[in-house]
Amino acid sequence: MKYMLIMRGTDETVAAFQDVDVDEIMDSMGRFNDEMVRAGVLLAAEGLDPEPGVVVDYSSEPPVVTDGPYGETKELFGGFWILDVASREEAVEWAKRAPMAGPGSKAEIRRVTTIDEFPQDNEWIRKEREWREATGQL
């Protein structure tokens, strides 16, 4: 099963990291990522630019685009890992080992759905399956 570990922090988290040596952060993240690679569970990992993005709000027609990243929440998404593990408990164990410390620093763990969970007779699912097969994703 695939799980996404979403790194979340607050303004307080960001402020706490201002004085941390970048090389120290890179070393601890590099060691953690290498550990997941050697365990065969890491599928993807990316950080997100700390500069504000935009939010597309679909609650009206047409959708409204505002400066983001998350106007109604105090938490910021900093990046993610996607792991292929046997269970949610295993994903939680990996998250506990992530080198994330400091005030407000959290990881949200969400299962990633698969194309097999959708109606296979749907035209769009068939097209997506073909694309995934052609690009080596299945």
UniProtKB/TrEMBL annotation:
Pfam families: YCII. InterPro entries: Dimeric_a/b-barrel, YCII. Residues 1-108 form the YCII-related domain. Belongs to the YciI family. PANTHER family: BLL7163 PROTEIN, BLL7171 PROTEIN-RELATED. This is Uncharacterized conserved protein. It comes from Rhodococcus triatomae.
